[in-house]
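INTERNAL AUDIT FORM
Audit reference: QA-55
Scope: verify that the stored structure record matches its stored sequence.
Auditor: D.O.
Record contents follow.
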Amino acid sequence: MRVCWLFALSVVLCVNGVFAIEKKPQQKVTNTSKVTVNAKASTVSKSSTTKSSASATARKVTTKTAATMNQKTTAPSSTKPATAKKSTDKSTAQTTRKKSADKPAKQTASQSSEKTTATKSAKKPINFILFAVSQHNSRSVIDPIVIIKNGKYLEPPAGDATTAQIARFANTHYREGQKYRLLFGGGEAGTVRIKQWNLRKTCSRTEADVELDGEHKISGKVMGLATNSSEIGKRLRSRRFPTDKEKSAAESLIKTLFNQKGVNSTLIKEGLTRVNLTATDLNGDGKAELIGTYLVKSAKAGKVAHILFAIIEPDGKKYKVGVSQYGEITAKDLGSEAMLNELGESALAEVLVDQIDLDRDGTAEVIIADLTKEGVVYKIFKKTKNKWQRAYEFVNLRCPY
């Protein structure tokens, strides 16, 4: 039986030299090591996650996640209350007592006003669906990533669902002529119109062929998003190629991370490949974060590939690692060296789909994917209280072998 190596991509990781796999993805990230570039320290944490019910080959591999966090604390201020002057005048004393009695009421009103303002500014949960949008050889398709209901992430039907389940989904979301908003770089970029649902295409049952209309750069490894929500994607678009300075800063951090994972410096120098690197502003502060995927493969038709995904954040005039995910895949895991050599080309491991602020809290979530001929694994990274964590993972095994 042909190895279904989609899962080998989605769950690749080494934990203290022992390969393992967990049944449920962990969403909490813990700091364990530091990365320093240009005398600036960045912290990388390790955790492992996986979601797989597939092949025995996939059970030989697991994933390492790393994240950095910076927290600022402010010491509470204290003031000494003023002491009221005594007065022998009766009316003055009465006035003073009256003002003193009024104080608690005014404070209560102020507190009430603050609570009301906070309630008004809170974003109400909205219900919508999010698709990945891709284009290859002039063919454009959409594929469901997540359904969000009342702030909760729900999985759409996967390729191994029953025909009835996928048909119900398609009757709602893939009607011919149905339109969605096209998103790119966190903002609106045009319109997606459904052409046809691909039920009869064995490995494309969850996809629909579409027409794209608008301003975007979706093609090949560059993907975008589509949604039926009118509430998300209200920002100005922010997604571009990195500058030479940004490339150099990212590569320096990436090399350090690979070294920390035990990858030989000579091998890094000879075999480091940048699969994708994107500059995009995730929090609207005018400074671009860098999101990239890198591979290290042996020049001798190697039997192992080292994979590293990272979100790199501005840190003053320098950069630090916000979160990283490392893994390694062997030719044996995938069935052949030929399959291993496809990594970074027809098969994409841990590559950016796009960024979008799903909960409208001011910081965009980052959506990545493992893409192979067998299917796709979508992952959503979210930053909460200055910590990145994997908030969602959906395995869509569209074409099992």
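Auditor finding: record pair retrieved intact. The mean pLDDT is 76.
Action required: none
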